[in-house]
Design a protein that fits this description.
Number of strands: 10
CATH topology of the largest domain: Rossmann fold
Largest sheet: 5 strands, parallel
Distance between the termini: 14 Å
CATH superfamily of the largest domain: Cobalamin-binding domain
Structural class: alpha/beta
CATH architecture of the largest domain: 3-Layer(aba) Sandwich
Oligomer: single chain
CATH class of the largest domain: Alpha Beta
Radius of gyration: 22 Å
Shape: globular
Bound molecules: cobalamin
Strand order of the largest sheet: 7-6-8-9-10
Number of helices: 14
Number of domains: 3
Order of helices and strands: EEHHEEHHEHHHHEHEHEHEHEHH
Strand content: 5-15%
Helix content: 55-70%
C-alpha cells in the first residue's frame, strides 16, 4: 500500500472514510468540529488530513479500514510490527486496556494485515504477558484485561468483515476441542476466513468432535478447522480426531488443524488434510486449496 496523498474530498467520501452517515459529517462541519471549505456552488469540501485528525481524536469511531483497502492506500505510515508490539506491551504494563484496543485499531488502519497483527503482534504480546505473569511481574488481572481488550477489538473487526467482504459462498465450521477454553487464536482463524469472504460457524471453546462433525455434515461445510491450544488427553484426542477426519472425508470436507498444543510427538500421530502454525500459513493454504472462483473474482473486480 502507498501513503494517501494530501487530497480534498466530498462530504460523502469523508462519511465513507469515517464509516458514518453524511449527515454526521455535515453536522461536524457546521459545528466547527471538522474544518471544510465551500465551493462556489455551495458544496462542502474536506481535507483528508483533517479527517484523519478527527478520527485520531476519538470523536468518531476511528477510520473505516475498508475504504482504504478498496483504494489500496494506507491512511497512516505503515508501522513495524515489532514497534507496535512494544507500544502495546507498555500499555498492558500500564494497565490501559482501552488504549491497547485503540493501538490495535491504529495498526490495522495503517495497513498491517490481519495475519501480521495475529502472528507478529498479538501472539508475541500474549506470550510475553504469560511470561511476565509467570514471573509475577504482572497480575492475572492484567492478562484478563489484555485478553478482553483484544477480544473486543477482534469482535469489532468481525463486524466490519461481515459488512465488507465479497462472499465466496463457501462455509467453514470450526472450534476448539473438548477441555480447551482458549479464545483469541480461534477468533483470529474465524476472522481470517471472514475477511476472505467465507461464511463461518465458530462453535468456540470446549466442543466435542462429534458435535463439530454433525454441524459440518448438516450445513454441507467445505472446511472444518480445529484450534488446539490445550489437549486434555492425547490418546482420546488422537482417536477422536481420526473419527472426525474419516467422517469429513466421506462428505468431501477438508480438515485444517492449528494451535500451539500440536507440537512434539503428538504432531506425528495426527490425521488431517492440512496443518499449520501461523495465520500467514493459513492464508496461503486457503488461497492454494480454495482459489477464488470466477464469480468471486468478477465481484471483486467490479467493486475495485
Ligand atoms: C491467556 C492464556 C490463558 C487464558 C485463556 C483465556 C482465553 N479466553 O483465551 C486462561 C487463563 C483460561 C488459560 C488457561 C490455561 N492455560 Co493458558 N495461556 C494463556 C496465554 C498467556 C496467552 C494465550 C493467548 O491468548 N495467546 C494469543 C493467541 C493469539 O495465540 P495462539 O492462540 O497461540 O494463536 C496463534 C498461533 O498459535 C496460531 N494459531 C492458533 N490457532 C490456530 C489454528 C490454525 C488452523 C492455524 C493455522 C494457526 C493457529 O495463530 C495465532 C496467531 O499467531 C498463553 C501464553 C502463550 N505463550 O501464548 C498461555 C498458554 C496457552 N496456556 C497454557 C496452559 C498450560 C494453560 C492451562 C493448562 C494452565 C493450567 N494449568 O490450568 C490452562 C488450560 C485451560 C484450558 N483448559 O483451556 C500453555 C499451553 C502449553 C501448550 N499447549 O503448549 C501456554 C502456552 C503457557 C505456557 N507457556 O505454558 N490460559
Amino acid at each position: 500500500m502507498t501513503e494517501m496523498p494530501e487530497e480534498i474530498v466530498t462530504v460523502s467520501d469523508a462519511a465513507e472514510m469515517l464509516g458514518v452517515s453524511v449527515s454526521s459529517v455535515k453536522r461536524w462541519v457546521d459545528g466547527g468540529v471538522l474544518p471544510a471549505v465551500k465551493t462556489s456552488g455551495g458544496h462542502r469540501r474536506l481535507r483528508v488530513s483533517d479527517i484523519m485528525s478527527l478520527a485520531r481524536s476519538g470523536v468518531t469511531g476511528g477510520l473505516n479500514i475498508d475504504f482504504f483497502r478498496k483504494r489500496r492506500v494506507s491512511p497512516l505510515p505503515m508501522p513495524e510490527p515489532a514497534a507496535v508490539y512494544s507500544e502495546l506491551l507498555n500499555l498492558v504494563k500500564e494497565r490501559k486496556p482501552e488504549e491497547l484496543a485503540l493501538g490495535l485499531d491504529r495498526a490495522r488502519q495503517a495497513g498491517l494485515e490481519l495475519h501480521t497483527m495475529g502472528d507478529e503482534v498479538i501472539f508475541p504480546l500474549m506470550d510475553e504477558v504469560g511470561k511476565l505473569w509467570h514471573e509475577k511481574m504482572l497480575d492475572v488481572a492484567d492478562e484478563h484485561l489484555a485478553t478482553r481488550a483484544i477480544h473486543n477489538t477482534l469482535a469489532r473487526w468481525k463486524e466490519s468483515a461481515l459488512q465488507a467482504s465479497p462472499k465466496t459462498g463457501r462455509l467453514a465450521v470450526g472450534a476448539c476441542p473438548q477441555g480447551d477454553y482458549s479464545g483469541l487464536g480461534n477468533f483470529l482463524v474465524e476472522l481470517s476466513l471472514l475477511e476472505r469472504g467465507w461464511k463461518v460457524l465458530n462453535l468456540g471453546p470446549n466442543t466435542p468432535m462429534d458435535s463439530l462433525a454433525m454441524v459440518a455434515r448438516e450445513q454441507h461445510a467445505d472446511l472444518v478447522w480445529l484450534t488446539c491450544t490445550f489437549v486434555e488427553s492425547e490418546d482420546s484426542f488422537v482417536t477422536d480426531l481420526k473419527g472426525l477426519h474419516q467422517k469429513l472425508m466421506s462428505h468431501g470436507t477438508a480438515l485444517f488443524l492449528g494451535g500451539r498444543a500440536l507440537q512434539g510427538p503428538l504432531r506425528r500421530k495426527l490425521t488431517f488434510d492440512w496443518q499449520g502454525d501461523t495465520l500467514a500459513q493459513l492464508d496461503r493454504a486457503l488461497a492454494d486449496r480454495f482459489p477464488a472462483t470466477r464469480e468471486t473474482e468478477n465481484r471483486e473486480t467490479s467493486k475495485a
